[in-house]
Specification:
This protein is α+β, with helices and mostly antiparallel strands and about 80 residues long. The protein is built from three helices and three strands, in the order E-E-H-E-H-H. The chain has a three-stranded antiparallel beta sheet. The two termini are about 25 Å apart.
């Protein structure tokens, strides 16, 4: 079983589910003296899995996802941690 940092409630195609967050890192902008352009402007890196409401991986629900759903998941994760 995968260990999750946290889980958040979400809906894909109107179906309630959970998003299991396995990794999250948010680098705040460091300005023009940063070592790289990523550090200069800041970035967020996250990994997650779609789960059913009982916490089991839901590959069948991933198939229903759209690009808009994926963007909304990332936005919800960012909102959750900030």
């Amino acid at each position: 079983m995968t260990a999750y940092i946290d889980t958040i409630e979400f809906r894909i195609s109107g179906i309630p589910c959970l998003i299991g967050i396995t990794h999250y890192h948010s680098q705040k902008p460091m300005g023009k003296y940063a070592d790289s352009d990523w550090d200069c402007y800041g970035y967020t890196d996250c990994e997650w899995e779609v789960l059913d409401r009982k916490g089991y991986k839901a590959a069948w629900l991933v198939k229903k996802m759209t690009a808009r759903d994926e963007d909304a998941i990332i936005e919800a994760i960012n909102k959750h941690f900030n």
